[in-house]
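User: I'll paste a sequence; please echo it back and then give the predicted structure.

Assistant: Echoing your sequence first, then the prediction.
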Amino acid sequence: MREIVIDSFAGGGGASTGIEWALHAMGAPDPFVDIAINHNGAALAMHAANHPSTIHLESDIWTVDPLSQTVGRPVGLLWASPDCRHFSRTKGQTPISKNVRGLAWSIAHWAEQCHPRIIMLENVPEFQSWGPLMMGPNGDEIPDPKRAGETYRAWISRFKKLGYRIDWRKLSACDYGAPTSRERLYIIMRNDGQPIVWPAPTHGDPRSDAVIEEKLLPWDTAYDIVDWDAAAPTIFVESTRLGMLGMAKERAENTMSRVARGVERFVLGDDPCVVDLWPRGKAAV
């Protein structure tokens, strides 16, 4: 019986596309993700447009019964990218939500019910700090720094008790050909007795010996894929149905700090990014 693939926090479908590409590279004929789950109808509609062969479940992950959806079919891969807002360094002062913060426990529920052969999870590195909450100075519940990582370790232990071999690493997307320096935590679990093998980087810092010696390709950059001819509002303006017009929106302090670092590095630095925006050879930095 053919193993099925489940994208349990499907979003718009980026992960599902990557999974299908990987399965195709491994020789699978016409691979597709069998089940995609997401509570957001708009995101799932985008997923459906790009993955028409997939069964789409617009639902909270906790309300989906693993056994009734898999119907006895073996699960080869369960992919999970639970909401990372309450672990991200860029969340600012967003209040903690226990419901969102505990979403990863649903993956353990699926593991106990249908025993996927492989489980893969992607999240921000701070996910490893998942721990109990405490009462903050303003009466809000905040993470207890003295118990950081306690819940994460308990979560890992739950899979080990089910017989999963587990490994995790922090990987940067730019090292594998994506034009972003985004670093994420990847967790792989297997219960089939096979080893967990991590991919070797394909790209590197253009100034590194590995790239100079042509052992790795240079990092791709956002500059290479941006359509500089496309008109668009800046991040400091809210886009509306009127197009370029909109209302100014206050940005989070962490966002502004990242913008400032980018300006310092790519505009005021020794090697500024120069984009030709005007005719007759005029350029803007």
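The longest strand covers residues 165-172. Residues 206 and 218 are 5 Å apart (CA to CA).
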